[in-house]
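U., I forgot to send this yesterday:
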Amino acid sequence: MNIGEASKASKISAKMIRYYEQIGLTPPADRTDSGYRTYSQHDVHRLHFIRRARDLGFSVAKITDLLQLWDDKSRQSADVKSLTQQHLAELGQHIANMLKTAEVLKALIHCCAGDEQSDCPILYTLQQPDTSAKEPEARTGAVSRRTHANGAAQSHVPRRPSEPS
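Result:
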């Protein structure tokens, strides 16, 4: 089948199929004498696997690992389970970070009058430099939370100098 048919059968765009080939997730497609890509049912099966893994949030790197395990008939299911458990833990951390971010955004929205005035605590907060003492971490789009002496986490939304504490 040609790339259009493989795209339709796998529900992956032709552009993504070419990309997956380029980065090595799929082997180079067979070519006709005129240079067109051709795909077998096995190729489409592999594309289904990749699509399902992407739908479950696996990164390209982790899909590469999963495909290697899938192709290795002497694999141990414990290796697959471990990789999946690690992915689940990462998703849990990502969800927790997103929930923290949502709380900070709610606090910022609550502080903003949302009226005709130009003064905006949301913009004021966004312009403030990060004053945390800890080493910078890889950015994942999450908002960090500060912990008080009692161990409770609190979203940090700086107050404008004119606001009472």
